């Protein structure tokens, strides 16, 4: 039986375990995507501060910057082949702060507080829907049985898009739409509706595969369009954001119909293959 308190000599050097490996240096390509994600988190937290201070245009700017960084961190990770489970979890936590908490608090401070507890409940619903949508997205990534066509669609409105379109009433005020007595009730219903769209089963265009391959003749037009869009966003930020939000909402029915058509075609192909297999087995 080993003694309860074995002897210990402080001058004795511990023996090196033969299987202990020396620490290896981590390539910078593994750190870069996570650094971009942390910068997005800093933007989201800055949006919270700007909201508390009542500086709503700066808060919206910080959320837009967070959305841009969120759109490129995954692409950087895939480009550098540095995707990891840690990066995916960090990205989800960051998205909840940036696109769940920050927009909900901004809307509450801006207008929903006029409806008192109902406004706070609407903000809570939106933030919780964002969390549930992100959790469902993480689970869906592990599904190996998804048809190939589903890679072009999200299930429900993604959190970054939901955050940008739920702020549409704030954009409208910034371009001159007056803030009247009916603003808060309308924004309350609109906030809950966008939150429910995030957790719905409505298929929406993902755009994740856009830009993976570009035809040579489209390179210059795409660069020119990117420059023009950036210039318009810097010169007329809220007009551009209003237009983008309205176009996204208008595209929701189109994405739903397109997904239904692809799903029906996929089911027909599966049934046709099953019928051909049964026919071949019957001949045997």
From TrEMBL:
Return the broad EC class.
Answer: transferase
Q: Where is the CDP-alcohol phosphatidyltransferase C-terminal domain?
A: 217-253
Q: Which molecular-function annotations from GO does this UniProt entry contain?
A: CDP-diacylglycerol-serine O-phosphatidyltransferase activity
Superkingdom is Bacteria
Task: Show the catalytic activity.
Answer: a CDP-1,2-diacyl-sn-glycerol + L-serine = a 1,2-diacyl-sn-glycero-3-phospho-L-serine + CMP + H(+)
List, alphabetically, the GO terms of the cellular component aspect: endomembrane system; membrane
E.C. number, please? 2.7.8.8
Q: Name one Pfam family in it.
A: CDP-OH_P_transf
* Main location per the UniProt record: membrane
Name one process (GO BP) from the record: phospholipid biosynthetic process
Q: Where in the cell is it found?
A: Endomembrane system
Q: What membrane topology does the annotation report for this chain?
A: Multi-pass membrane protein
Q: Matching InterPro entries, A to Z?
A: CDP-alcohol_PTase-I (IPR050324), CDP-diaglyc--ser_O-PTrfase (IPR004533), CDP-OH_P_trans (IPR000462), CDP-OH_P_trans_C (IPR012616), CDP-OH_PTrfase_TM_dom (IPR043130), CDP_ALCOHOL_P_TRANSF_CS (IPR048254)
Keyword terms of this UniProt record? Lipid biosynthesis, Lipid metabolism, Membrane, Phospholipid biosynthesis, Phospholipid metabolism, Transferase, Transmembrane, Transmembrane helix
The keyword Transcription regulation belongs to this UniProt entry's keyword annotation: no
Where are its TM segments located? 26-48, 54-72, 93-112, 118-139, 151-172, 184-202, 214-234
Q: Which PANTHER family does the entry link to?
A: CDP-DIACYLGLYCEROL--GLYCEROL-3-PHOSPHATE 3-PHOSPHATIDYLTRANSFERASE-RELATED, CDP-DIACYLGLYCEROL--SERINE O-PHOSPHATIDYLTRANSFERASE
Q: What is this protein called?
A: CDP-diacylglycerol--serine O-phosphatidyltransferase
Highest classification ranks of the organism? Bacteria, Pseudomonadati, Pseudomonadota, Alphaproteobacteria, Hyphomicrobiales
């Amino acid at each position: 039986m080993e003694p309860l308190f074995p002897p210990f000599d402080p001058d004795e050097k511990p023996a090196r375990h033969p299987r202990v490996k020396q620490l290896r240096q981590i390539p910078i390509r593994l750190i870069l995507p996570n650094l971009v994600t942390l910068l997005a988190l800093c933007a989201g937290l800055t949006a919270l501060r700007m909201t508390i201070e009542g500086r709503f245009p700066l808060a919206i700017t910080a959320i837009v910057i967070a959305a841009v960084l969120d759109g490129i961190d995954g692409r950087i990770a895939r480009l550098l082949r540095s995707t990891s489970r840690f990066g995916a979890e960090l990205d989800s936590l960051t998205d909840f702060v940036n696109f769940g908490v920050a927009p909900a608090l901004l809307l509450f401070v801006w207008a929903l507080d006029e409806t008192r507890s109902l406004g706070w409940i609407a903000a809570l619903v939106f933030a919780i829907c964002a969390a549930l949508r992100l959790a469902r997205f993480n689970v869906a990534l592990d599904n190996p049985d998804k048809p190939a066509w589903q890679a072009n669609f999200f299930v429900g409105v993604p959190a970054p898009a939901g955050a940008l379109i739920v702020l549409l009433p704030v954009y409208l005020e910034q371009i001159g739409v007056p803030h009247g007595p009916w603003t808060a009730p309308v924004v309350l219903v609109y906030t809950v509706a966008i939150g429910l769209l995030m957790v719905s089963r409505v298929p929406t265009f993902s755009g994740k595969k856009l830009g993976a391959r570009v035809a040579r003749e489209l390179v210059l037009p795409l660069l020119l369009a990117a420059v023009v869009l950036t210039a318009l966003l810097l010169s007329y930020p809220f007009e551009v954001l209003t237009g983008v939000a309205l176009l996204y909402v208008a595209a929701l029915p189109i994405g739903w119909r397109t997904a239904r058509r692809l799903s029906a075609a996929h089911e027909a192909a599966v049934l046709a293959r099953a019928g051909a297999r049964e026919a071949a087995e019957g001949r045997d």
